[in-house]
Amino acid sequence: MGSTYKILHPTDLEAVDNEKKTFALDVLVGLSETPKRLSSRYFYDERGSQLFEQIMDLPEYYLTKCEFNIFENKQVEIAQLVRGEKFNLVELGAGDGRKTSLLINHFLRNGFRFQYVPIDISESAMKTLTDFLNKSFPELETTGIVAEYFNGLKWLNNITGSRNLVLFLGSNLGNFNKPQSRVFLRNLWNTLNDGDYLLTGFDLKKDIDLMLKAYNDSQGITREFNLNLLRRINTELKGDFDIDKFRHYSGYDVFTGAMESYLVSLENQTVFIKDIGQSFAFQEWEPIHTEYSYKYLESDIRELAEATGFVIEKQLYDSRKWFVDSVWKVQKVNHRDTT
Ligand code: TRP
Question: Which of these, 185, 182, 147, lies nearest to 168 by C-alpha position?
Fold first, then answer.
């Protein structure tokens, strides 16, 4: 019993070196494109993760509040999925585990037989999480896996035959565009077993002003969070971005259904990144795209489930119906088994 974690890919020097190389390569490719872009996966270094936690606490950032509301009110519905059997509660990209704690607490109080399996690529996030779980739930069995999601899941399936209930919370899926989310979900389907469950968060389309406020908070924390990407390039790749010469901008595209975030250059300028050995020119008002956060209609969710081999089991809404945690069952029988 107790909470520990395993590192599937040891972060030895070579791995750290590879990580840095990948970051440098992604920055080089992204800033060489027109329009320029930087991947949102690089938001989450230590400072970025802290800033995102502050974002989740903001009154304007309704997404986290909605999902807390769901986890407070729908525990019984979720518990019904796995009642009476031994199962794995898997979480992809667990973060600080605050939302999941509500569910874990409910499962423990009701004597469910399960282990919690958070999978995350960041070892420091995993350490913080397992320390927190050891303190909060000494009786909980946790096997954290530090790995890419699909590698972690494959490893897990090799050592247990139990049913998986996989959590992919927040706006994680929404950060993929349509084709990417299909590929991701189909990969997940391939990795999971018939009858496994997936619980995914979908932010629903809603009043545009509410969405704009959530991504442009009055305290400027979202701004800091977005600009942190440039800070990261400065510290990790020896860049010389002048942070004050860029501004945060988030807008909603009604047609694609995405909140889209950018960093916009406030003047003509050239930035040198030493570890890439190259300069990048920015014109006044030139944007760098940093993130998509897709918002969904009910019909989008149905189409996505159907296209990727899942059956929708339950729709768990928050009390305002702004957000849904959609529970899908993996269906492999009677479904063409493609890879
Ligand atoms: N993934 C989060 C989301 O889509 C991250 C986020 C919140 C974000 N606010 C942001 C990303 C502002 C870029 C800019 O909701």
Answer: 185
- Cα(250)–Cα(57) distance, rounded to whole angstroms? 19
* Å from CA of 323 to ligand 1 middle: 15
Residue 63 and residue 47 in contact, taking contact as beta carbons nearer than 8 Å = no
pLDDT at 333: 79
Percent of the chain with pLDDT over 90: 79
Name the residue with the closest Cα to ligand 1, atom 15.
171
Per-residue pLDDT of 180-212, as tens digits, reads 999 999 999 999 999 999 999 999 999 999 999
Tokens of 253: 């595209």
β-strand pairing of 114-120 with 87-92: parallel
**Ligand 1 center from residue 140 Cα (angstroms):** 31
At residue 279, φ and ψ (nearest 5 deg) are -105, 155
Averaged pLDDT, 49-61: 93
- Of all protein residues, the one whose alpha carbon is nearest to atom 4 of ligand 1 is 293
Task: Report the phi/psi class of residue 220: left, alpha or beta, with left for phi > 0 and alpha for psi in -120 to 50.
Answer: left
Name the residue at shortest CA distance from atom 2 of ligand 1: 171
Question: How confident is the model at residue 338, as a pLDDT?
Answer: 53
Ligand 1 atom nearest 259 alpha carbon: 4
State the alpha helices, DSSP H only, in the chain: 13-32, 46-57, 62-73, 75-82, 98-109, 123-136, 149-159, 178-191, 208-214, 221-237, 298-308
